[in-house]
What does this fold into?
Amino acid sequence: MKIGFWELVVVVIVAFVFIGPDQLPVYAKKIGKMLRELKKYTGAASEEIQKNVVEPLNEIQAPLKEAVAPLTDIKKDIDNSVKDVTKGFTGIGKTSKEEARQEGCGGRGHRPDCRRAGGGAAGRECSPRRRGCRRKG
It folds into this structure.
């Protein structure tokens, strides 16, 4: 908790009113002494916590980190392998669909008697609207 300048002024004015100017220095010394002791005790408590709790946890944590390090390396290798495999498979389906659209049968493939498949003139032709081969005529 931080006390600003104006808060301190209000505390001093209230102290003058309730305690009086004669007793104010005595009480100020007592409050200062209490705050010094409080700071000393809290510092000692934080040192005890550091020594008895934090340092043993750090000692326990070090071997665990060493044991987990190979597993994280394996995970990274697996992730990289999966990324490589997915990159290899991403273009497989797209190219065949695009080729079929360019041929004009909507990706369904040509019938044997379609003109694009080598069928005769009286056979079928590709219909871009119907997405497939249809009878000519």
In short: The chain is about 70% helix and 5% strand. Residues 24 and 30 are 10 Å apart (CA to CA). The longest strand covers residues 124-127.
